[in-house]
Design a protein that fits this description.
The chain is mainly alpha-helical. It is built from twelve helices and five strands. The strands form two sheets. Strands 3-4-5 form a three-stranded antiparallel β-sheet, sandwiched between helices. A two-stranded antiparallel ribbon has the order 1-2. The chain is flat, with a radius of gyration of 21 Å. It catalyses: L-seryl-[pyruvate dehydrogenase E1 alpha subunit] + ATP = O-phospho-L-seryl-[pyruvate dehydrogenase E1 alpha subunit] + ADP + H(+).
Length: about 300
């Protein structure tokens, strides 16, 4: 994986995991009532300085319909087999698949956010996230069918814009949770039985978000590889997947990063003994392994 992409993917995963764990320490959630996401979607979305009175009814209907459709699972083995095809063909097939699949996944995320407790679903930061997802959903549904490499390139440009738009989703959700906690439990009265349900939501939401961003990021990485001269393309890279990922190297990097954090925050760090064979490799996403070991 390229360094910048790896660091960005890794930092998002770390922040998502941290928010989910931290929420279990927050208490005092009151008056939780589950409402239909369809009813709550009547509330206007907002994004920063943008205020949207209401989404078009046709778009709401489309989001609802897509949220009821099943997401298509994609295995690591499938992506590896897919990577054996010519790169240009990979680009077209990947764009065709994502053109159909990503709106379904975005609709699921919107539905989950609308099924939060009303006070949290109506939080300005959570509504901002819903607006980002709805905007990306609209763009993808309005994009014409992908037929050739030229269409795939245009689709990828649109996907890159949507990918960047969602960069602030995790901080926005964190801010929304912070404001919700202050509003519902200003005196820190203790945990509620409902904490488990919200923690489960965070785990599910962030795991689904990681999967969504992996599919989008993997496609963008394929596109960037296709633009390189053949002699500069790595034979061990299929999008974000490294076919010869070295666990020893990734673990060593994660240990060093963790030690750096300890030294910066505590002034010292323990030594870690790492045992493993440098000859052992496997197909994997290095940033995901790094995140697990770092934690």
């Amino acid at each position: 994986m390229q360094g910048a992409a790896c660091r960005a993917h890794m930092s998002c995963a770390m922040l998502e995991h941290g928010i989910s764990k931290a929420w279990s320490k927050l208490g005092g959630l009151q008056n939780f009532s589950r409402v239909s996401w369809w009813l709550s979607s009547a509330a206007p979305f907002s994004s920063g300085g943008k205020n949207i009175d209401a989404l078009p009814r046709a778009l709401l209907d489309d989001i609802m319909a897509c949220s009821l459709r099943k997401q298509t699972g994609v295995s690591l083995r499938y992506i590896l087999d897919f990577g054996t095809q010519p790169l240009n063909r990979q680009m077209v097939l990947s764009a065709k698949f994502l053109h159909q699949e990503l709106p379904i996944r975005l609709a699921h995320r919107i539905a989950e956010l609308n099924n939060l407790p009303p006070a949290l679903s109506a939080n300005r930061n959570v509504k901002r996230v819903k607006w980002w997802y709805a905007e990306s959903f609209r763009e993808m549904r309005e994009f014409p069918a992908v037929k050739d490499a030229q269409d795939a390139a245009k689709f990828t440009q649109m996907l890159q814009h949507a990918y960047s738009r969602h960069n602030a989703v995790v901080p926005a959700i964190a801010k929304g949770l912070e404001e919700y906690k202050r509003a519902t439990d200003p005196y820190g009265s203790g945990q509620s039985d409902l904490d488990e349900e919200l923690t489960a939501f965070l785990d599910r939401f962030f795991l689904s978000r990681i999967a969504l961003r992996f599919l989008a990021g993997n496609h963008v990485a394929l596109f960037e590889q296709a633009r390189l001269p053949p002699e500069r393309r790595s034979q061990d890279q299929i999008g974000l997947i490294h076919t010869r990922c070295s666990p020893l190297q990734v673990v060593s990097d994660a240990v060093q990063d963790a030690r750096d954090v300890c030294i910066r925050t505590r002034g010292d760090a323990p030594h870690v003994n790492i045992k493993g064979s440098p000859r052992l490799t496997l197909p994997y996403v290095p940033s995901h392994l790094h995140h697990m070991v770092f934690e």
